[in-house]
């Protein structure tokens, strides 16, 4: 369906990240009346994508293997309009110490088209969405052998476990290549 293809976004995160920066990549949207002139104070953000830890591979690892790109499909249910998009990498390599999770942010002004009617019933504010006491931001991600696999435990990115926000799979490079020539 061509409408769903129109929602493909390619996000450049940070080009200088390397394998020690282990952690998730998350994407939030905030609806605004005019993305070109809106400020960020007082906005209500909802999560549309998250690439956390899967089979020992972190979202940042996926980004690195994709030459600095993180891919996802914008859910087609998003209400058309202007949005600010917040893409964040949460680096957890030093998170065993309090307040040592590192945040790398990027923002974009976007216009969503389509016929979606989604209205989030759970939103967060930035700053304020995370707490220094959040167990997903203060943890030891290394196992006894020094491998950053969260000790084999499931990792839940902050806000995700109590959020009614959308959960959308991150596309790998092969899936996106199958769309080449279709996305304009």
Automatic annotation (TrEMBL):
What domain notes does the record hold?
A: Has a modular structure: an endo-beta-1,4-glucanase catalytic module at the N-terminus, a linker rich in serines and threonines, and a C-terminal carbohydrate-binding module (CBM).
Q: Does the keyword Secreted apply?
A: yes
Q: Which reaction does it catalyse?
A: [(1->4)-beta-D-glucosyl]n+m + reduced acceptor + O2 = 4-dehydro-beta-D-glucosyl-[(1->4)-beta-D-glucosyl]n-1 + [(1->4)-beta-D-glucosyl]m + acceptor + H2O
Signal sequence segment: 1-17
PANTHER family given in the database record: ENDOGLUCANASE II, PUTATIVE (AFU_ORTHOLOGUE AFUA_1G12560)-RELATED
Pfam (any one): AA9
Question: What subcellular compartments does it reside in?
Answer: Secreted
The residues covered by the Auxiliary Activity family 9 catalytic domain are: 20-144
Provide GO CC annotations from the record.
extracellular region
Q: What is this protein called?
A: AA9 family lytic polysaccharide monooxygenase
Q: Which domain of life is it from?
A: Eukaryota
Q: Which GO terms describe its molecular function?
A: cellulase activity; cellulose binding
Source organism (scientific name): Serendipita vermifera MAFF 305830
Any idea what job this protein has?
Lytic polysaccharide monooxygenase (LMPO) that depolymerizes crystalline and amorphous polysaccharides via the oxidation of scissile alpha- or beta-(1-4)-glycosidic bonds, yielding C1 and/or C4 oxidation products. Catalysis by LPMOs requires the reduction of the active-site copper from Cu(II) to Cu(I) by a reducing agent and H(2)O(2) or O(2) as a cosubstrate.
InterPro entries given in the database record: AA9, AA9_LPMO
Going by the record, the broad EC class of this enzyme is oxidoreductase
**Carries keyword Signal?**
yes
Q: What is its EC number?
A: 1.14.99.56
**An example of a Gene Ontology BP annotation on this entry?**
cellulose catabolic process
**Taxonomic lineage of this organism?**
Eukaryota, Fungi, Dikarya, Basidiomycota, Agaricomycotina
